[in-house]
């Protein structure tokens, strides 16, 4: 085996430019596979963490008639509760309303949340301000859409539980920046007690955000949606991106493997005298097959060596500094940070190495197995077989 390894290495180095062209394209495929999957893993981790911290916590306990995808369900989606009934959970009440910024009308979801909650990263402490009649916080997307600034007042119109319309000015006390669009676009957050009083829904909520300690038991009138169910959309988007991305880099890998296959076929064809010499010197056909297969698989080892030298500094830089994306990507309705930090896990790197080594070995063995059926005498004479 040691002799075969030395011969394979010398044959590859002796091939010169042809070897390094194959190694180069295989190394490029190796780097691209790790980079793309690392980028998606980083996006996935950040999106899940941001969604948990800003929006869903460890799950939601919703009223039976609340459907977040059906705006017509909001009007009747509320049920009474007592703080003792759902301790440590964060109640949220949603009402439909309209605002009139700069002479325009915008329909919004008016959300009430306790000002003293600490579970979500919403800056709700600003809602306890005593300077304004109704202090409100909004996200930067909502601020851009309504062209509102901090300290500005805007007329709010809402309908209470009896269907009566009322209106009052609210003050924007804070514009927060979050990567989670679901708690931002088309929404205004005010103190829960204030919204309950305005809507005539004292101690009523649309849903609760649960914490880590919550253990669900069947409660009449309420439906529990787990964290994994709420993260299902993100998981599906990441999975679809991985599939579409894999088509691109698998095609690139296929080109690299095709080049190795072609090189191996040419080697077996042109080096028949050499093959005959190996057999004449005592090597069995099986050992010659192993030698040629080892030559082919050695492309993958050289490719990983080159890929490591080129890719590791790039991966380290990207993992520390991240990759910046334009702000327009945050308005697509998908939780996506403006800067994504790729995650290059050991499982990803080892899996990619295994894929490249196995693929290169298989495509090297296919042409080399023909050697086992060669007549060594005719091969030594240089007759084509």
From TrEMBL:
Q: Which cellular component terms (GO) are annotated to the entry?
A: plasma membrane protein complex
Residues of the ABC3 transporter permease C-terminal domain: 247-376
Q: What is its main location?
A: membrane
GO term, biological process aspect, one? lipoprotein localization to outer membrane
Q: Where does it localize?
A: Cell membrane
Positions of transmembrane segments: 20-39, 247-269, 275-294, 301-320, 340-366
The entry's keywords: Cell membrane, Membrane, Transmembrane, Transmembrane helix
Record-linked InterPro entries: ABC3_permease_C, Lipoprotein-release_system
- What is this entry's stated membrane topology? Multi-pass membrane protein
The organism's place on the tree of life at top rank = Bacteria
Coiled-coil features, chain-numbered ranges? none
Family the UniProt entry places it in: Belongs to the ABC-4 integral membrane protein family. LolC/E subfamily.
Q: What is this protein called?
A: ABC3 transporter permease C-terminal domain-containing protein
Q: Which organism is it from?
A: Cyclobacterium amurskyense
